[in-house]
Automatic annotation (TrEMBL):
Alphabetically ordered keywords of this record: Membrane, Transmembrane, Transmembrane helix
Record-annotated membrane-spanning stretches: 189-212
Cited SUPFAM superfamilies: Protein kinase-like (PK-like)
The name this protein goes by in its record: Uncharacterized protein
């Protein structure tokens, strides 16, 4: 049975078990990692940015720039979805659909000071407890926004968000995530705790992305891979709702909580 039919069957006719959920996650994650390993430049990506209809990537040393814009089935889209390789390396490229041309280097995202939340997060990270890191138990996420750290700090003491971490004095935070039995139940409670810990839920898309990272063990991804590989039921509809293109189409704080409660 293919994934589409399996997901449809699971969503419509029966509640997925932890074994079904975990099997799907482990298999898809392994496939995504294998895809990524086929293309060397992904291992040297330094930064990326989302554009309307595509994205930008900076990779390598010295840094090279690639702009990718294109609809489904184009070379640009396939590169962003980790289905195709760059047509050539060690040069700055603009790929519009299937059209490839060399371009000029662009300053890396964040270097121009467009978003103040991309500044040094060390003050917020310094508030996190320093503990030993265990790759078997910890989910790692590099902080992008100061506010996301502040939100997570509000959740300290939760029985489901066990601990926030500062690892090796670098700007990395992690959440101890229970991957044992009752995984669906644990994810539900974990996300409810996040929602309750956030007084004003302004980053619904970010919560969808955070949830995806928890399901797939923080598999390195970009926004396009994330949207093209939604988690399975019973969380699929929640993820799709959180990552809708238009802000006004995404659920409110109360709607999102009700969706998790209904699982």
């Amino acid at each position: 049975m293919d994934d589409a039919n399996h997901i449809k069957r699971g969503h419509a006719t029966h509640a997925w078990t932890d074994d079904e959920f975990s099997e799907y996650i482990h298999r898809v994650r392994a496939e995504l990692i294998q895809q990524r390993d086929n293309f060397l430049f992904w291992d040297s990506v330094k930064n990326s940015a989302v554009l309307s209809g595509g994205g930008e990537i900076w990779y390598g040393e010295p840094s090279y720039y690639v702009k990718l814009i294109g609809g489904s089935g184009t070379l640009a889209s396939d590169i962003l979805l980790v289905k195709s390789d760059l047509p050539r390396y060690n040069c700055d490229l603009e790929i519009l659909g299937n059209d490839v041309r060399e371009t000029v280097q662009k300053a890396m995202a964040g270097e121009e000071g467009v978003d103040p939340d991309l500044e040094d997060c060390s003050e917020e990270v310094a508030k996190l407890p320093l503990v030993a890191f265990n790759a078997e138990n910890h989910f790692i996420k590099r902080p992008t926004y100061k506010q996301e750290i502040r939100y997570l700090l509000q959740c300290q003491g939760s029985p489901f968000i066990v601990q926030l971490l500062k690892f090796k004095q670098s700007l990395i935070m992690a959440v101890l995530f229970n991957t044992a039995n009752e995984r669906i139940k644990n994810i539900k409670l974990w996300m409810l705790d996040i929602i309750d810990g956030v007084a004003y839920l302004s980053y619904v898309f970010a919560l969808g992305a955070l949830f995806w990272e928890c399901c797939f063990y923080n598999h390195p991804h970009n926004r396009h891979v994330l949207l093209d590989n939604p988690p399975p039921p019973p969380f699929r509809d929640i993820f799709v709702a959180c990552t809708r293109e238009r802000l006004e189409d995404r659920p409110t704080h109360l709607q999102l909580r009700a969706m998790y409660e209904a699982i």
